[in-house]
Design a protein that fits this description.
By secondary structure, the chain is an alpha/beta fold. The protein has eleven helices and 20 strands. The structure holds pyridoxal-5'-phosphate.
Amino acid sequence: MGTGKTVWDDPADLIRHLQPDHPVMAFAPTVLQDRARQFLTGFPGLVTYAVKSNPDEAVIQNLVAAGLQGFDVASPWEIDLIGRLAPRAARHYHNPVRSRREIAHGVREGILAWSVDSRSELEKLFEQVPVSVIGQRVEISPRFKLPVLGAAYDFGSKFGATPDLAADLLRLVADRGYVASLTFHPGTQCTEPTAWESYIRTAREICDAAGIRAHRLNLGGGFPSHRAAGVAPDLDAIFAKIGKTVAECFGGDAPALVCEPGRGLCADAYALIARVKGLRHGTDVFLNDGVYGALAELPVIGNLDRIEVLTPQGTPRTGARSGRVIFGPTCDSVDRLPGELALPDDVAEDDYIVFHGAGAYSLVINTRFNGFGAVTRATVMGFG
Ligand SMILES: *Cc1c(COP(=O)(O)O)cnc(C)c1O
């Protein structure tokens, strides 16, 4: 206490000095910028950021500082956020279902790239979206889907046209004079490089069926973060697979590529610091954060198991690990993490659990249910 510090070396340093009794999200801007540069140098096309995964101002600003020039936005709020924080960046309005008022908002804001996955929504775009804006032609990208493989959960159940419908939409878009492109999202947290492969092949088939050369191909998000201790994501292998498959399918006449990672960019730049409130029955561990807070996504996608347990002095607990049931702070019985987490046997009340890789779909989903959820932000230089 009383050091005047506002930036910490790592989570242990923060814990030692502050001993916070509420959850803290520790953000490492250097980690985010390094990851952004890995995408910018490795991905063979334009890198955009899916704002919904973590719209914190610090994330947007650091991505712009690292050189990102585009954002995937899904709502008027996200359109305005990027307009304010990154006024020169491209905004791709890639939520394929929008109300007429939302479309009007995008048009007023000068949106140049839209996605679509149905005839009814395409009709709405045709009625409201001009073919060009200040001399630049507007792009509409039919979004297609395939049965899922390799993703942590299925995005295709909500959005995406069948390849046949996508070919029809592509032709309609081109006939109207818009820039005709294609987009897909292979599903989130795809650790297998092959997740993108069949989509790229299908994109080629859609172009052939429509008799249209897609101007751009957007490969979506789905790039993995380091969620599980034993499975480090290999982004460079994914980039290589994407480049090779595009070359095989399209040869020298390939569409320009775009990706729109959310999780793959932001998740590993954050660690959640939660505190042990109490231990019960020898097996149960109650934390001050849970599935109504920054751990909201875990029941759908699985545990974050890159965890450290630290004493209030910031010293690691090193006991043999065994499975514990982890509950969050609310009075709701679904407020528990899936399965069990392996914690050191010497874990004690008032200790801290640091969940690494917690930056995506966490802060932005956090609720104030039961009066909990007062997560604060802190800046760290790294994660030790
Ligand atoms: C959510 C979303 C993304 C980002 O997905 P991640 O799995 O976080 O990379 C990208 N594009 C669209 C259209 C999305 O809805």
